[in-house]
C-alpha cells in the first residue's frame, strides 16, 4: 500500500506549481504553472530519488522451521 501512495505522490509532483527561483522578493514570487517547466524541474531535481524509493522491492521474510 505504501508504494501505491508514493506513486500517487510522484504523479502529483508533476502537476504542482512552484515559485520561480529567479524571484528574490519573499512572498511575492512568480508562480510557475506550465506543466512542461514543472516536469522538467522535477525530473532534474528530485525524480530519481523518489523513483528509487517507490520501487516495489521484495520484503525479506522470515521462514520458521
List the SSEs and their pairings.
Layout: H1 2-13, E1 18-19, E2 31-32, H2 35-45, H3 47-54
Antiparallel strand pairs: 1-2
Helix pairs in contact: 1-3
- Secondary-structure class: mainly alpha
- DSSP helical segment count: 3
Q: What is the string of SSEs from the N terminus onward?
A: HEEHH
Question: Roughly how much helix do the residues carry, as a percent range?
Answer: 40-55%
Radius of gyration: 17 Å
The poorly predicted ranges are none
Cα distance, first to last residue? 29 Å
Count of discrete domains: 1
Structure report:
The protein is mainly α. The chain has one domain (2-22, 29-54). The chain is built from three helices and two strands; from the N terminus they run αββαα. It has helices spanning 2-13, 35-45, 47-54; strands spanning 18-19, 31-32. It has a two-stranded antiparallel sheet. Helix 1 (2-13) runs antiparallel to helix 3 (47-54). The radius of gyration is 17 Å and the shape is elongated. It starts with a helix and ends in an 11-residue tail after the last helix. The model has no long low-confidence stretch (mean pLDDT 84).
Descriptive labels:
65 residues; mainly alpha; two-stranded antiparallel ribbon; 3 helices; elongated; ion channel
